[in-house]
Design goal:
It is built from 15 helices and 28 strands. The chain is globular.
Length: 638
């Protein structure tokens, strides 16, 4: 008598997958599979390695031989078992890539850097997104690997909770139920998973650290030459090594290199030098801190700067070389900050921060920031420590008073911030490390001039915040400036960790909205870097009626643009806006020197002056064009 399996058993039986079927699914769904791998991989790998690893994992997901793999169809509505098989392999490898390496176990293939693909001399990463994409990336980074996989499978492939648990169980997750609970409901984040920020198939390219590449190339050439010389000497009869072997004679020593590694030659500036100096920047900061006489600490810091070991965490802001100093650097600070011994050096171009645990040297860190061309405003403080989401600053010797101000609360008074005798502040919450934007605490410094506002953007040198036209930016002191910045602060994460020196917000226009909907403000926010390149510009539309801390709508953005800067102090931007009456309009505004604004494409119209409001339909696409009084064309920011 034959036993007939119930229908549900037939549906749950694994379906054999041939290599042709799996390959067809991989080719057809390659962009989706690489996006899934990129999202599940741990963010700690860095965007360049995540991109390359995502492609490598997908390309290694085919069965090794015909009929060599099996996959269960993940859901009745998804009838492609080839895609289900390849997806399962991708998720399994992406989770393995996030496992910690063990001393007495061979690493899994996914835990090692990908051999292929490789692009020499370039860093590849997806296009940068906005504040929403950044918030989603931070949310994913806070999840465990299995929870991140559950979040992505639910949001990207629309799997149910039961299907997600089955997939996680199939790839070896110990507690799929807990992973699903930790992931939570993707909500609006499901749509953001399709954003270009998480697309490893649509990439931007930047060069790697050119200085380090040259150093490595020179080191490789020197090593190769040394091997040739040593091989030749070994082949000679008799004692081929000589007294000093391959070492250079004593007179060949580099005095500058020796001075850079000698703690006794470190430059120490007098405490009162800044009062009479013609310069007011980091070069006149005195050496401060309780450990300035600790020769052993200074020696370790200098040695790590010159030759950082593999265990040292090295970071540098974009455009900042991370090589050794040219000569003896200037000592700015050496002391205890929270649970670390910290040393700050300055070599005329960069500030270098060395930190090691108080109870040893394991886990030492070395950070660089470019600060050439600093003045009294931009040399007011340096980050000296970060702990538990807080940041401490070392303030300049000319700073008389320090306080904390919340940018999102323009009416609130500043809160006093204590400092010790060396100028180190107490801890304040770092907005650069916060997951949301419920507050934005900035450092307010006061000297002989008005108070300046500095904000932490994840780097050693905080960025100065200003307000006003590009040719005359000033400190944020008035009510109008504070209210405008309250609606701008939550856009600052888009310029985080880019080597930003200053961020200026400029209200270039105010516009009476149609149908008596009030008055809107148009702002241009420009972030300039220490390197002078890679600037970022945002045109912002602040509609009336929103809360004081509600971020404005980003109308346009550009990188490496001269708009809103000293070289091109003008801007033109537009938005598609819906009135309270339900009608759609194309709104445009430019700086006051525009004589005419024209819109074409979905709607054709023009108006004299620097403002435009034209009735249109939902979803209309229009192209803006502006003219100065002399006929010079001004293109819209994009």
């Amino acid at each position: 008598m034959l036993n007939v399996a119930p229908p549900q058993d037939i549906l749950s039986r694994p379906t054999p997958i041939g290599i042709e079927q799996a390959e067809a699914a991989l080719v057809e769904h390659y962009p989706r599979l690489t996006r899934l791998a990129y999202l599940v991989l741990p963010p700690s790998l860095g965007r360049n390695r995540r991109v390359l690893t995502a492609h490598a994992l997908v390309q290694r997901s085919l069965p090794r031989k015909h009929g060599g793999g099996e996959a269960a169809i993940p859901a009745p509505r998804r009838g492609d078992p080839g895609y289900g098989f390849v997806r399962r392999q991708v998720v399994r490898q992406a989770l393995e890539a996030g496992l910690p390496l063990r001393r007495r176990a061979w690493p899994k293939r996914a835990q090692l850097p990908p051999v292929l693909p490789q692009v020499w001399g370039l860093r590849l990463f997806p296009r940068s997104g906005g504040a929403d994409e950044l918030a989603l990336d931070q949310r994913l980074s806070a999840l465990s690997g299995p929870a991140r996989a559950a979040f992505v499978l639910r949001g990207l492939d629309k799997l149910s909770d039961a299907e997600v648990r089955r997939e996680l169980d199939a790839v070896g997750v110990e507690d799929p139920e807990q992973a699903v609970k930790e992931a939570g409901d993707p909500g609006d984040g499901a749509a953001l998973l399709q954003a270009a920020e998480f697309d490893p198939c649509s990439l931007q390219a930047r060069p790697t650290d050119l200085m380090r590449r040259r150093q490595h190339l020179r080191a490789a050439l020197v090593a190769a030459a040394a091997l040739v010389v040593c091989g030749t000497l070994l082949g000679l009869p008799g004692d081929g090594w000589g007294r000093d072997g391959a070492a250079a004679p004593p007179y060949a020593r580099n005095p500058a290199a020796e001075a850079a590694l000698d703690p006794a030659r470190v430059v120490r500036v007098d405490a009162a030098a800044w009062r009479t100096s013609a310069r007011t920047d980091f070069s006149v900061w005195p050496a401060r801190g309780s450990l300035t006489g600790d020769t052993a600490l200074l020696r370790r810091a200098l040695a790590v700067w010159a030759r950082p070991g593999r265990s040292v965490q090295v970071s540098a802001t974009p455009g900042t070389p991370s090589g050794p100093p040219m000569g003896a650097p200037q000592l700015l600070y050496a002391g205890r900050v929270d649970r670390a011994s910290v040393v700050l050096f300055y070599d005329g171009l960069r500030v270098a921060r060395y930190a090691e645990p108080v109870d040893g040297t394991s886990g030492a860190a070395l950070d660089f920031a470019r600060v050439d061309g600093a003045d009294a405003a931009s040399a007011g403080a340096l980050v000296v420590g970060r702990t538990d989401g807080n940041v401490r600053y070392l303030t300049a010797p000319w700073v008389r008073e320090a306080a904390v101000r919340d940018l999102l609360d323009p009416a609130a008074a500043p809160r006093p911030l204590p400092r010790d005798s060396d100028g180190v502040t107490g801890p304040l919450v770092s907005p650069a490390q916060a997951r949301d934007c419920t507050s934005w605490d900035v450092l307010q410094l006061r000297d002989d001039s008005a108070g300046r506002l500095l904000t932490d953007l994840g780097e050693l040198a905080p960025a100065r915040l200003t307000w006003g036209p590009p040719d005359a930016p000033r400190d944020i002191t008035g009510t109008a400036a504070r209210e405008a910045w309250a609606r701008t602060a939550c856009l600052l994460p888009t310029v985080r960790s880019r080597g930003v020196r200053a961020v200026n917000a400029w209200q270039f226009a105010r516009q009476q909205l149609p149908e008596a909907n009030g008055t809107a403000a148009w702002l241009c926010t420009r972030a300039d870097t220490w390197s002078g390149t890679d600037s970022r510009v945002l045109a912002q539309f602040q509609a009336p009626g929103a809360g004081k801390a509600t971020a404005g709508a980003v109308a346009a953005r550009a990188e490496n643009s001269a708009a809103c800067g000293t070289h091109e102090p003008r801007v033109l931007a537009g938005v598609l806006w819906k009135s309270r009456g339900g009608h759609w309009y194309v709104l445009a505004a430019g700086s006051e020197d525009l004589a005419k604004v024209t819109v074409s494409g979905g709607v054709d119209a023009s108006e004299r002056g620097h403002l435009l409001a034209v009735r249109t339909q939902e979803g209309a696409r229009a192209q803006l064009d502006g003219r100065l009084t002399d006929g010079t064309r001004v293109a819209a920011l994009r």
